[in-house]
Structure formats: C-alpha cells, structure tokens
Amino acid sequence: MLSRDADNCFWIGRYVERAEATARMVDVHYHAALESAxxxxxSEELEQGTTPMPWKSIITISDSAEDYAAxxxxxxxxxxxxxxxxxxxxxxxxxxxxxxxxxNARAIREQISSExxxxxxxxxxxxxxxxxxxxxATTPHEFYQLVKNSSHLFQxxxxxxxxxxETRDWLDTGRFLERSGQTARLTDVKYHxxxxxxxxxxxxxxxxxxxxxxxxLDTHGWIAVLKSVxxxxxxxxxxxxxxxxxxxVGFLVLSAQFPASVxxxxxxxESCLRRISGNTTGSPINEPERFVGxxxxxxxxxxxxxxxxxxxxxxxENVQNQCELVGLAIINTYLSY
Length: 337
Prior knowledge:
Blueprint (H helix, E strand, L loop, with lengths): L2 H33 L7 H6 L6 H7 L3 H7 L5 H9 L8 H14 L6 H15 L3 H6 L2 H22 L4 H29 L3 E3 L5 E3 L9 H10 L4 H7 L6 H10 L7 H16 L9 H15 L2 H7 L1 H24 L2
Antiparallel strand pairs: 1-2
C-alpha cells in the first residue's frame, strides 16, 4: 500500500474519532455544569454574558489555553462552543476534524466503500448548517448527539463494508490510537473538575468545593466521567457495588473488554501494526511496535489503586504523551513520503 494512501486512512480514523471525542467532552461538561448549583456571586456574570460554567478546566486540559486566549480571550458560552465546534482556525474543532476526514477520504475514494464516502460527505454538510447561536437557541445536546451519531454511522459502515486487509488496519490504527488518547484526556478533564477547590470566606477560613474529590457530590462527578465515554451502563453491569474511583479508573483505563478503554484501544493498535508489518514473532521489529508494546504492557500490569495513589492526573498525562509517541513513530516509520 502506498504511504500516502496509508496516511489518508490513518488520519480519517483519527479525525472522525477526534470529532466524536470533542463532542463528548463539550456535551458532558456543559450539561454536568448545568446540573450544578449556580453560586449567587456568579449571577451577575450570567447577565453580562460570561459563562457560569467552569470552562477553564476543559480549555486547559485539552491543551487549548494559548490558542483560545489568542482567538477569544473571554470564556463565554458562545465563544467556547464556537471554538471547540466551528472555529476553522482551530485544527481540533469538530468542523475542522470532519472537513479533514472528508478531504482525506476524497483522496482515496477508490480504497474505501462509496457508503463510507457518502456518510462523511453528508455529515459534513449537515454540520455546516449549524453555528454556536443555533446550538444555544435549541440545546447543545441535540447538536453533539448529531456528531456522535455521525461518527457511529461512519464506523458502522466501515465495519460492515470494508474488506479485512491493510486499508482497514490503517483506518483502525488511527481510530483506536485516537480513542485511547481521547479516553485518557476525557477522564483527565472530568477528574480535573473533581479536584478539591478551596475558596476563602469573609472570616478568612477556607471552604472546600462540595463537588470536589471526597465531597458529598463526588459520586455525581464520577458518573459524569463514565458518561463522557458512554461507559455508565456497562460499568453498572460490570460493577454492582456502586461508583468507586478505583473501579472507574480500572474500567476506563485498564479494562481489556470495554471498547473505549485505553488498554483495549492500545491492544487493537498493536494487533493492527503487527499485521501491517507481517510480524509473527513475540518481539517488536520496529519503533511503532516497540512503543505501543511498552505502553500496552504498562496498562496490562498496572493496578487502579496504584495509579490513584501515585497521581491519576500524572498517569493519564503520561498515557497521552505515550500515545503521541506511538503516533509519531508510526508517521516516521510508515507515513513519511
């Protein structure tokens, strides 16, 4: 397979998965914040058009702080939704990702099924009909559900119509690598919201945010973590003793069975890379296989309690960095032309 065709397939998988992950991140964050009580001191901000919701964490954890500050400045609902959804100057916005996936598909239409191309094209045209004002005039959930359904439709068509072979392996390498990194990022975003935040009262004492870790609404936050990757129902079917941080981390990060877990995704990437290279040995034969094999081994032998004890944010940040290294190794080994 030509390197440029493999490159197109790899990035189609990544862009579609990235668009869905961004939709999940913004949708769950927005609605979880709406369920929180609005502090009285922020009521004036709402009237002035500034957001009452904690957008800062989602901007920071998504590595968009500098780009957003340069593009927008204030963190209003409309500006944040536009930046993450429709801003074509933001390469990671939903519309940018879908446009890029569509353009990559256009370049390899002979390699993919016509249904896959039609799905990407129709969805892109539908997404272009929306803007931030229309989202806020209706409900953000309606639009972000459209994005998620479009992603699911495309991936369902892929699974139904694509031959098992190198083209499909490259599509799967891209989407599962992106999914692993995005699950780690989504979990990190929501965990960041749960971290205890102290505020000073008039008498000089500090009060801990009840939505923080260990607060009375801690369970509500962990449910939002699960819902951010559509894992809540499967989690409840797997764990019958309620919502526990270690169990949530184990399910989203270390589960071998849940399709959106980090470990499952990295395992799929490793299998695809071995088929692409023709490696039937037990050892890696190139840099991508070495990087992904090392990450998969770490995820296999890690334990939830150890991760939380040593720092969940640090662990998830390292997973995201390792996913980036795998992606760079793949590009340098296979896709540079």
